[in-house]
Structures are given as C-alpha cells and as structure tokens.
Design a protein that fits this description.
Layout: E1 2-3, E2 10-11, E3 18-21, E4 24-26, H1 29-39, H2 66-72, H3 81-103, H4 119-130, H5 142-153, H6 166-173, H7 178-190, H8 202-206, H9 216-235, H10 244-256, H11 262-275
Antiparallel strand pairs: 1-2, 3-4
Helix pairs in contact: 3-4, 3-5, 3-7, 4-5, 9-10, 9-11
C-alpha cells in the first residue's frame, strides 16, 4: 500500500499517486500543496545542486522533518528497511537505559534485569508497535521482524547486548537531536513516559508548538527534556551533579542558548529549585 503523506489515503498502486521524492506520495495536487510548508525544508528535489551535506554515520536516508513526522505518527514510513531496524533497536535500547538511569526501573526482559540480552524485551517492544496504526510500514511481516531481530543479535553498534545512552546516540547518528527523536518514538510505542509509570512527556510538549517542522523544535524539546529528566532523577534520589548524562544535556542546552537568553535563565532557575 502507498499512503498520501498529507491525508493518509491509501492506494495499492503508486501510478495513481503523485510522487514528490523517494518515499513521499500525494493523492492529489491539493494534498501536495497543503504539505509543502513542512516538506519543502527536507525535499531532496528542492536542495540546490552542490549544497554540502553532512555525512550520516548510521542511516542510509535522513529522516525528513522528524518532529513533524513524529507528531503525525508516520516517523518510520518511507524509510529503507535497514534504517527502520536500526531506529527501532536504538529506540528500545535508549528507553531501557533511561528507565534504569532516571526512574530506577530494570525490566527483567532487558539487559538491566536478568536477561542475557535484550531480545525478549525488544520483541515485546515490537509487538506493541504492531498494534499501533501506521507505526510500522505496510510491508512489515514476520520475516521482516526476524531480519530486524537478526540485526540486534550481531556484534556492533546495533547489538541488543550493548548499552547506549543519549550522548552515544547523538554521536553515532551525528545528530544532536536524535536521542529526542528516539525517546519520542519509544514513548509512542509504549504509550508511557520514562519508567513506564509516567504519562508521555514529549508528545504533549511538541503539540504546544505552532510548527513542529521548525529547526527550533529540537532546541525547545531538549530544554523541556533536560528539566524533565532532572526532575525524574531527583524524585528517585539521584545526585544530578554526579550524573554525566544530565550534565551533557545541560551543556548542550547552554550551548544553544547563551546565558543572556531568558529561556536559558529560566531553565537554570528551575534546576536550582530542584536541588535546593
């Protein structure tokens, strides 16, 4: 099935759709016009020839307008199979790391519990994803799931036996907002926030914004996430000043927003309130 990137109408034959670029189709001219504001910033057909592109260390195809796609629920649609496998594996691994680091929970089916590897926990994660409309691509099958699990069994970055944190994700993907994207994806699949007892955090935050395709979305979400993780850590009795993960998040936020930035000052005041 081919889905319209604007209205989600499904057709079995792409010849009846208007193709814009790889993986992006529209059912008519009006749908293409309505989606143009969001799609134009990432459409490869609109990028001038000779424009330098940053190398992507992990994905064969960059996710276009990621927060807009996450908000709309089609983040994984139109991506190559191997890229989808990697993103699902890393969303799961980062979530179980966050559960342990910020909520003190260790799932028995994860490597933080009693499991030899994270395969069983990852299977449960995928089973949840399969129950959510449009979360996985229409070609997903038991065979594709087996391929995805097979990637997680191999040695290397995607190994389900290895731990990762947010800094690892940002470095590996060469994208300073990639950890936020994966946390958002995991929240939508689990239906809960970090620790599995909290409500989802990132979706309500992005829905407050008027344009989730804007670059500043990542900056604003990281600021909100920094405070949220600090709050979770203090609630579980953690010492935030000794947690290198939180220190890196704070450093990134201060880098994006100078000390004269009012929003940055507000964040620091809220941090001080937490630790007093």
């Amino acid at each position: 099935m081919i889905y319209c990137a604007n209205c989600w109408k499904a057709l079995s034959d792409e010849t009846h759709m208007r193709k814009c670029c790889d993986g992006i189709y529209y059912c008519n001219r009006e749908c293409k016009r309505q989606d143009f504001k969001h799609h134009k910033t990432s459409c490869p057909n609109l990028i001038p020839k000779g424009t330098p592109q940053l190398p992507d260390a992990a994905l064969s195809k960059k996710v276009a307008s990621p927060f807009y796609r996450l908000q709309r629920g089609d983040y994984l649609q139109g991506l190559p199979a191997t890229d989808i496998y990697k993103l699902l594996i890393d969303a799961y691994r980062l979530r179980v790391e966050d559960n342990k680091a910020y909520a003190g929970t260790r799932g028995e089916d994860s490597i933080y519990g009693n499991a030899h590897d994270g395969l069983e926990g990852f299977r449960n994660f995928i089973n949840r994803a399969k129950e959510i409309p449009r979360m996985l691509p229409p070609w997903w099958s038991d065979k594709k799931q087996a391929e995805c699990e097979g990637l997680g069994r191999l040695k290397g970055w995607s190994s389900l036996s290895c731990k990762i944190d947010g800094a690892d994700v940002r470095s590996h993907y060469n994208d300073r907002f990639m950890d936020i994207q994966l946390r958002f994806l995991a929240e939508d699949i689990y239906g809960t926030g970090i620790g599995d007892r909290q409500k989802r955090f990132l979706r309500p935050e992005v829905e407050k914004l008027t344009d989730s395709a804007n670059f500043r979305t990542g900056v604003l979400l990281r600021r909100a996430l920094s405070y949220h993780l600090l709050k979770l850590s203090t609630e579980t009795g953690g010492d935030i000043w000794l947690d290198p993960r939180l220190m890196r998040l704070m450093k990134d936020d201060i880098t994006d927003n100078s000390s004269t930035d009012l929003a940055g000052q507000v964040l620091m005041l809220r941090i001080l309130e937490l630790v007093e």
